[in-house]
Write a structure and sequence with these properties.
Homotetramer. The active site is at 257. This is aldehyde dehydrogenase (NAD(+)). It is a single chain. The chain is of the alpha/beta class. It has helices at 7-13, 48-62, 67-83, 85-96, 100-120, 159-171, 184-201, 216-224, 237-249, 272-284, 301-316, 336-351, 384-387, 403-411, 426-435, and strands at residues 26-29, 36-40, 128-129, 136-144, 148-151, 175-178, 209-211, 230-234, 253-257, 262-266, 294-300, 355-358, 375-378, 394-400, 415-416, 418-422, 440-443, 455-456, 459-460, 467-468, 477-485. The strands form six sheets. Strands 12-13-14-11-10-16-17 form a seven-stranded mixed sheet, with helices on both faces. Strand 13, helix 13 (384-387) and strand 14 form a beta-alpha-beta unit. The longest helix has 21 residues, at 100-120. The chain is globular. The mean pLDDT is 97. It binds 2-aminohexanedioic acid.
Length: 500
């Protein structure tokens, strides 16, 4: 990898010039050390009507471009992302605080979804359906919908945009992207990469991708507009509770990917060596700031003590600190508020009778960042604080004796994103897959780190949306049922007679 160390080097490698990084009102700081890295101009909310109109005009042209040709733009985007992988990955590290391999992994996830979407651009299949009437055929066809608003969070600042955008664009929908105010630079860097793909493509309409920088008022303009038929939003359940009803009021479509409170059940037969590795990656990776992070461990009482002991020992050796440094596994939380919320949750867990291992501010970490030691918390039961999603590396541990109780506990939270079981018992594994109420249910791997090929999302307070692989593309298109009569008669369905 090219060695990009200073913020200035990374920003230059991402194509920023000094002028666009200064003079604005939105201060961007790095969670690594709290240093300010840019002051960006914000999009005036008064510009939103023109931005939405521009997306509408782009839609008029783009919908007419054959889908495989639209796929060519995404193929070029994938090539540009490959060329920019080191620079963009380094910027993810700088702006979101991810360790180097996770920053690069996020860009790889973008490349993967581009490849997927290119193939998809030739596979936007509908059905043919047998008609009950002679001389008639029925089919289902899929059509572009119109501009899609994509609202993303700081924790996957670029991959989640690419899941949505690669699909939306091959489906014929232009994108208006409102990134998190905590990660606007990565969004602007993606816009530059996208512009290079557009330039190579040649004849794409203006405004296929527009990035708006700023706060909730921009999001409100997008959710309120009937000219934005799709709103795909990733973030907190609190945000989803605002976006969902707003869009529903105008009968728009939402794709919501909100909170998770993901559990692992560890059965007596589990391969504990593997379980420990899976637990540590999924609970501690990205400093516990994935939607899919492991937050609850439901362990059979016969192995609970031994497992907790191994986890506490593994946590004690975790390299915490500057995410740019080789060997670091735990970088900073996004900001001091996130750390305060973590410490407050640990206090509540203690008050509920929990025993906390770790969880203290980390020593020997860079000044100015919110570095904490990940925590393992033995809980007497699944109390209120456990049922909430705290976006930090806290792993609550509960015991079980009867697998039925473990299934009930795993489902007994408001969120329904991801879940898993470690067991070597086929009956337990298959039964778990039937019983988990989550959008993602795994066996002998952790709840996080999904590949792009599957549909990603979950139920209940997670919002019900699906993004990324499988047939998630259908969320970006509208379906029409077509009946064609090629006979010389006009029979009615259901045997109805209506002769005039
Ligand atoms: C998120 O946390 O918003 O499955 C997305 C995973 C990643 C995506 C997480 N592929 O953990």
């Amino acid at each position: 990898m090219t060695q990009l160390s200073s913020a200035a080097e990374i920003l230059a490698a991402c194509g920023f010039d000094k002028a666009e990084l200064a003079g604005g009102t939105l201060a961007v700081t790095s969670p690594i050390d709290g240093a300010e890295i840019a002051r960006l101009a914000e999009t005036p909310v008064d510009d939103m009507p023109a931005i939405i109109a521009q997306a509408g005009a782009a839609f008029d042209a783009w919908r007419r471009v054959p889908a495989p040709r639209r796929g060519e733009l995404i193929r070029l985007l994938g090539e540009e992302l490959r060329a920019s992988k080191d620079a963009l990955g380094a910027l993810v590290t700088l702006e979101a605080g991810k360790i180097v391999s996770e920053g690069l992994g996020e860009v790889q996830e973008m490349i993967d979804i581009c490849d997927f979407a290119v193939g998809l651009s030739r596979q936007l299949y509908g059905l043919t359906i047998a008609s009950e009437r002679p001389g008639h055929v029925m089919r289902e066809t899929w059509h572009p919908m119109g501009p899609a608003a994509v609202i993303t969070a700081f924790n996957f600042p670029v991959a989640v945009w690419s899941w949505n955008t690669a699909l939306a664009l091959v489906c014929g929908d232009p994108v208006i992207w409102k990134p998190s105010e905590k990660a606007p630079l990565t969004a602007l860097a993606c816009a530059k990469i996208f512009a290079r793909a557009v330039a190579r493509f040649g004849d794409a309409p203006e405004g296929l991708l527009q990035v708006v920088i700023g706060g909730a008022d921009l999001g409100a303009a997008l959710t309120a507009s009937p000219d934005v038929p799709i709103v795909s939003a990733t973030g907190s359940t609190r945000m989803g509770r605002i976006v969902g009803p707003e869009v529903a009021k105008r009968f728009g479509r939402t794709i919501l990917e909100l909170g998770g409170n993901n559990a692992m059940i560890v059965a007596p037969s589990a391969d504990l060596d593997m379980a420990v590795r899976a637990i540590v990656f999924s609970a501690v990776g990205t400093a516990g700031q994935r939607c899919t992070s492991l937050r609850r461990l439901i362990v059979h009482n016969s192995v609970r003590e031994a497992l907790v002991e191994r986890l506490v020992a593994a946590y004690a050796t975790l390299p915490i600190g500057d995410p740019r440094k080789a060997g670091t596994l735990v970088g900073p939380l996004i900001d001091a508020d996130a750390r305060d919320r973590m410490l407050a949750a640990l206090e509540r867990a203690r008050a509920d009778g929990g025993t906390v291992h770790g969880g203290e501010p980390a020593k020997d970490a860079p000044e100015g960042g919110a570095y904490v030691a990940p925590a393992v918390v033995e809980m007497p039961g699944q109390t209120e604080v456990v049922r909430e999603e705290t976006f930090a590396p806290i792993l609550y541990v509960m015991g079980y004796d009867d697998l039925e109780d473990a299934f009930a506990m795993q489902n007994d939270v408001p969120q329904g994103l991801s879940s898993c079981i470690f067991t070597l018992d086929l009956r337990e594994a298959e039964e778990f897959l039937q019983r988990s109420d989550c959008g993602i249910a795994n066996v002998n791997i952790g709840p996080s780190g999904a590949e792009i090929g599957g549909a990603f999302g979950g139920e209940k307070e997670t919002g019900g949306g699906r993004e990324s692989g499988s047939d998630a593309w259908k969320g970006y298109m509208r379906r029409a049922t077509n009946t064609v009569n090629y006979s010389a008669a006009l029979p009615l369905a259901q045997g109805v007679k209506f002769d005039v």
